[in-house]
């Protein structure tokens, strides 16, 4: 049958329920039990046994079949699935007929009955009473195949979650990961805070922002690309350990590792440096892995990730030199010429870019895919790290690391720059790059520099991409699998 015919048939059943005085959308149901608890308590019940224990549970019908004057159905709640056993003798012919002829797969029902097992040993609830809680007017996907159209899975996310236990499991694990992050930081004296999502000036990262307009103020505002500059202001104000876990927005492409709206953790620790951030990253990721059932290893896309600490550390310049064979100490124009002679692909927009951009490109294309076990890439060029302190022997590198796991950038951290005069000069360099056409670099934020002039303690700061970390810990190949409602294209 066409979907329109199936919907019409369900609407006829809806009318039939109402004609019989049944409210198909009642206000509430007292479900005092859940399927997971029932299964846990009675999983060892022998075949053909009865418990004498009556339960009340609610869920969605996902399977129905009739056998003469008996019927079987499967009901699903957030914790699992259990079989319902219906006997015309027990519930009466009218209720039996109503269940079989007015209900459909997808309907939500409440049931009351005794826990028992069938002669085949299937744990079941023998239904004494049932209540229609919501009539489903649209058919569900095939139980065994679910939604095959990937785009439809994310556009019709509720339908996907009904059909796919795996999709529900990933989002449930995400919740445990987020809880583990908060617990880890709270136990270490960090204070969770909130900073503006609508900002007068986008800053704290290199990214193109989303722009909106405030009518009363008659000025453009920006969805934040990072909470960094506001969190640092809290350090200036006297808070010593703060973190924020929330949505961040970047007006960039969509890929298996990028969604324009994503979840970021940023944490700042006064009187620390990026070595402290390394310890924080190792402990936090390990605790998150434990929270979703992993031990010292994680399986991702058929390969094993070794989480045994301490994690590997490599210097960016050395890693890029080894991978490219190029002399990375040379000036940008000479490095570019050498890369092109060696046949290394360099996109046109990076030919003439600052040297740091070239090195970042080499890291992403030649080094990053091979970083499978957790690896900290250390000490980045200053021209792509405007908010980090220089390395202690001076030069054009800063104390910054990125953490890579399974070839994905999971975290980014600095020894935070707290010299207001150097910060202002770094911003001015960014202004010149912006004037030259780079729309992603951040401009000068004079209010932030003025706050730095009040004095900010030395600090370690770290940002963690929660979605990418969840991908690794749930064996998900796309960021869209770990976001409840990812951005999708126009309906085809």
DSSP summary, beta strand count: 18
Shape: elongated
Count the DSSP helices.
15
Total individual domains: 2
Task: Report on this structure.
- Helix content is 34%, strand content 27%.
- By secondary structure, it is α+β, with helices and mostly antiparallel strands.
- The protein has two domains: 3-140, Beta Barrel (OB fold (Dihydrolipoamide Acetyltransferase, E2P)); 163-311 and 373-481, Bira Bifunctional Protein, Domain 2 (BirA Bifunctional Protein, domain 2).
- The protein has an eight-stranded mixed sheet, sandwiched between helices. Strands 1-2-3-5-4 form a five-stranded mixed barrel. A three-stranded antiparallel sheet has the order 7-9-8, with no helix packed on it.
- Helix 7 crosses helix 9 (274-291) and helix 10 crosses helix 12.
- The protein starts with a helix and ends in a 19-residue tail after the last helix.
Question: Quick recap of the structure?
Answer:
The protein is of the alpha+beta class and 492 residues long.
């Amino acid at each position: 049958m066409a979907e329109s015919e199936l919907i019409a048939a369900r609407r006829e059943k809806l009318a039939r329920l109402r004609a019989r005085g049944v409210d198909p959308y009642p206000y509430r149901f007292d479900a005092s039990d859940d399927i997971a608890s029932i299964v846990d308590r009675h999983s060892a019940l022998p075949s053909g046994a009865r418990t004498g224990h009556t339960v009340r549970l609610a869920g969605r019908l996902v399977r129905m079949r009739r056998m003469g004057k008996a019927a079987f159905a499967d009901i699903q709640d957030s914790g699992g699935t259990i079989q319902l056993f219906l006997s015309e003798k027990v519930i009466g012919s009218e209720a039996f007929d109503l269940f079989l002829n007015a209900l459909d797969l997808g309907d939500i029902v409440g049931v009351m009955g005794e826990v028992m097992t069938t002669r085949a040993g299937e744990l079941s609830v023998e239904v004494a009473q049932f209540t229609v809680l919501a009539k489903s007017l649209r058919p569900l996907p095939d139980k065994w195949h679910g939604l095959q159209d990937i785009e439809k899975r994310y556009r019709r996310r509720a339908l996907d979650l009904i059909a796919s236990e795996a999709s529900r499991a990933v989002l449930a694990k995400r919740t445990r990961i987020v809880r583990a992050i908060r617990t880890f930081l709270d136990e270490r004296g960090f204070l969770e805070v909130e900073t503006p999502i609508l900002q007068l000036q986008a800053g704290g990262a290199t990214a193109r922002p989303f722009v909106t307009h405030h009518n009363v103020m008659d000025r453009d505002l920006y969805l934040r690309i990072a909470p960094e500059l506001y969190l640092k202001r809290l350090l200036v104000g006297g808070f010593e350990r703060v973190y924020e876990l929330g949505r961040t927005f970047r007006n960039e492409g969509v890929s298996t590792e990028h969604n324009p709206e994503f979840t970021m953790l940023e944490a700042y620790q006064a009187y620390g440096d990026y070595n402290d951030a390394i310890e924080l990253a190792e402990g936090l990721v390990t605790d998150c892995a434990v929270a979703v059932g992993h031990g010292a290893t994680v399986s991702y896309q058929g390969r094993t990730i070794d989480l045994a600490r301490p994690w590997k550390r490599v210097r960016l310049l050395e890693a890029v030199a080894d991978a490219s064979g190029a002399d990375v100490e040379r000036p940008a124009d000479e490095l570019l010429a050498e890369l092109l002679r060696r046949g290394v692909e360099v996109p046109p927009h990076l030919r003439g870019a600052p040297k740091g951009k070239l090195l970042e490109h080499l890291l992403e294309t030649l080094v990053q895919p091979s970083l499978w076990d957790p690896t900290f890439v250390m000490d980045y060029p200053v021209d792509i790290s405007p908010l980090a302190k220089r390395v202690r022997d001076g030069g054009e590198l800063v104390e910054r690391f990125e953490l890579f796991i399974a070839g994905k950038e999971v975290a980014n951290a600095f020894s935070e720059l707290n010299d207001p005069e150097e910060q202002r000069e770094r911003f001015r360099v960014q202004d010149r790059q912006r004037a030259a056409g780079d729309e992603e670099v951040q401009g000068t934020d004079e209010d932030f520099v003025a706050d730095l002039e009040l004095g900010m303690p030395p600090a370690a700061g770290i940002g963690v991409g929660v979605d990418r970390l969840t991908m690794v810990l749930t064996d998900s190949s796309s960021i869209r699998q770990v976001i409840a409602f990812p951005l999708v294209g126009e309906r085809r």
